[in-house]
Every structure is written in structure tokens, then in C-alpha cells.
Amino acid sequence: MFTKVFNKEFISRIFKKAEINKSFDFPLVWHQKDEYIAKVDLIIAYLRCQEATSAYQILHKGFLLRAHRFLNIRKEDIECAFGNLGVLDKA
Length: 91
Known about the structure:
By secondary structure, the chain is mainly alpha-helical. It has one domain (about 1-90). The protein has 7 helices and no strands. Helix 2 (about 10-20) runs antiparallel to helix 4 (about 35-50). The longest helix is centred in the middle third of the chain and has 16 residues, at about 35-50.
């Protein structure tokens, strides 16, 4: 069921429905919609089968989108939370 919801087609339909309903409660997410749509399949594929190449891509600064909940998070807080985990675990 998880992969039925989190995929490019479903996310695209959600954004189209939001546009039809003029539901723009989260403007930053709306502004980044093309990136969400473009990246969701890669992220889900990584979660299903963790591989190092995808992990490095996900960890690359700017790959994962940062919406309103991440605007005030400091890099030090994230580093402290993840510590010395390996690349696959951090991704």
C-alpha cells in the first residue's frame, strides 16, 4: 500500500487536485512540487533496497527538499542526532 501512495503518479494527482481546489496551504511545498514529483520514486526505491550510490545522492546537500518544518533546524542538531552512522543509515 505504501508504494501505491508514494509514487510519481499519485503525488502528481495530489498536486493537480490541490490546484483544482485552490488549496495552497503550504506555499513552499507547492513551489517545490516538480522536485517532489521528480524525486519520490528514487527515494522509495532507496527505502526498498538500500544501495550506496542512491544513499550518496540522497545525502548530497540540496537533494532532499526542505519545507516549512526544516527551515529552523540547525546543521549541528542533525549531526548530533545521526552521529557516526554509516552512509546507508544516514540516507
